[in-house]
Amino acid sequence: MLRIKASIAELRKVVENADDDIIDQDYEEEDQKEEMEWEPGDGEIEQELAMEEDHPNDPVAQAQRREREIEAHVRRRQALDDLPISLKKPRKVFMMKHAISEKGKEKQLEKEIPWQLIPPDERQLYREAEQKQWDEHLQFGAVKPLSLAESEEVFQRIKPDRVLNSRFIYRDKNYAKRKVDSSVPPRAKARLCIAGQNDPDLGKVDMATDAPTTSKHSIILALQLALNRGWKVSVGDIRAAFLNGIPAPRELYFRQPKRGIPGLQPGQLIEVLKGVFGLSTSPKLWWMKLSGDVRKMKVDHEGDTYHVVQNVIDPCVFQFVKEADKSVCGLLLTHVDDLMLMAPNGLAKHIQSELKRLFPADEWEEDTFEYVGCEYKCSAEEVVISQHGYAKSRVEKVTIEQGVSEEQEASIEQIEENRAVIGCLSWLAKQTRPDIQFQVCQAQKKQRTPSIADLKQTNKAVTDTIQFQHCGVTLRKIPEERLCFLAYHDAAWANTQPDAGEEQDFDWIGDHQVASQLGSLVLLADITCLGNEGGRFSLVDWKSKAAHRVCRSTFAGETMACSEGLEGALFLRGLYISFATGARVPDHQGGQFFPLHLVTDCRSLYDHIHREGVPRAPAEKRLAIDLAGLRQALMIEAEHQWRQEHGEEFKPTPERPLRPPLHWLPTHEQLADILTKRLKPTEWWGRINSGWLSLPLKTMPRQDKNQQDFRPV
């Protein structure tokens, strides 16, 4: 029964988070009216057995009862498998997530517009989009239409399950913009999708179905590298990418949509030759084509030859390496069919021409563009990443009637609205809005069964989102020789609940909060920020989450937050080094390239790490392991920084001490504080948008060198 519950939970999660391209077996009204074929469950069998007890002396009833008992016993034995027996037998079941609230229905129309809801005066635009989509299928050789005779032969030769259904998905790509400005014309798009969820090879044949995409960290760090080196940034889109994948015929066919395909007769089948929209293997087929062709590229520019190397950490990033000195002179980031290119201006033009020769790439955009849901403005000194348009057009408050008690449970419509709003806020918080990250984490834990009070907290997050909708991530140019990684970390003790998926004994914990919120924030900064002189910085990463362990003290929470901040900074530094040099450098050697510093507002943690000798073990023995790991990693960083300051011969003395790069600052200087509790972000955004940082650390001039010894005030 536990396995059955786990399978049902996974199935529910798939339905709730279904991708836009997942389609039903046939999107026709008459098919939706067909009855589902179900086998009787154990509860139904027991009910029938109880009904048969009314005739205990009837031989027929006794035989039927015995037969039912055997059937129930067999079903229970089979249910011990990992997958419930009800899911093993193929059946015709239609799973669709229908919106209940009006706002939910409105958001569904943004993703797909049913044909009957398209205004009659706009339908011609969608018919033209259908024709364009079908022409692309033929142009790139992704499909092959069969004649009526060939179609009949296919039906006689293969199993029926290898012939899938299809339909057109209609979408107005300007739908969100038209909600803000009704004068914006519609931008019709029609996508021909097949019912790939009914692929007969799924679960039977070992197939790669992943869709490689570059990460947010790669995009931000690559942009920072481009700023530091003065590279030009541009983006391009590959038209109908899935149809350009490598050939992979598996003898799959599909029927025409309900309204047919222009130029084909009813009854003609279409053979699948490449990746088409709806197939689970299409993203991988396209990726194999893209990565294979890009790795073979060679670009000649101003007497130098550049070849392409795949990044050792993020395989979705390709590096252009000059053959003369093996230096990295450009980056190409791939996100399915969206490309982001960074290279010196002259070299970038040659790379764009070569990519256009290999793929049907549309025009390249520079300086100001949209990429993967964010808006970018690039200049020689900074890159501004924001989501102003998204926050303005898609973030709305949950509908709450006046006079309703805060203890009352939310209605089904409100729960749906709340989930939609939290989904929008979560996307913003992960991409460009660290100031709402904590509120999003809190709302996600209560979105299953929220109360009216929880809905009001969601609306407060919406208020902050709209008020600061023009704010975002700003990357600033920093000389690479002075670049350092600066990680702030903070913890709020016992101020939140554990993650929603964890089972809790509420009879034991009552109404108390038992989890501590951990926050970390990583900056790329000029090393002059660690002193009175000050310098520029770029915000590159932030995290906020509940601790997996229950902390007995603030010291424990701060230690765990420090570990999270250190791990995040080490990863980002390794990724940046791989972009800058093309090499993968172990964590313990990364300090040779760029120093790393941590900032805490916990004095006891600072004293524990800086204390000489073996400090007294904390009461929590598990915490001693965390502290030992922190001390070891920080002392490795300290040794690199000592060598860079005093020379290669490593001989620390009282006059030239070895200090772990963990610094203490008062709480009002802690930038990660906003990630662990709800704060008004006005002052925080003021400091972030200023782009200038000067930590109040005491400077001590040395007698032999004009260097600084950073100590807390």
Structural account:
This protein has 713 residues and is an alpha+beta fold. Among the domains are: 2-88, no CATH class; 394-467, no CATH class; 481-712, Nucleotidyltransferase, domain 5 (2-Layer Sandwich), CATH 3.30.420. 37% of the residues lie in helices and 19% in strands. The protein is built from 21 helices and 25 strands. The strands form 6 sheets. Strands 8-9-10-11-12-5-13 form a 7-stranded antiparallel beta sheet, with helices on both faces. Strands 22-21-18-19-20-23 form a 6-stranded mixed beta sheet. Strand 11 and strand 12 form a beta hairpin. It is globular, with a radius of gyration of 30 Å. The chain starts with a helix and ends with a strand. The model is unreliable at 19-54, 78-96 and 699-713 (pLDDT under 50).
Give the tags.
single chain; 713 residues; alpha+beta; Nucleotidyltransferase, domain 5; 7-stranded antiparallel β-sheet; 6-stranded mixed β-sheet; 21 helices; globular
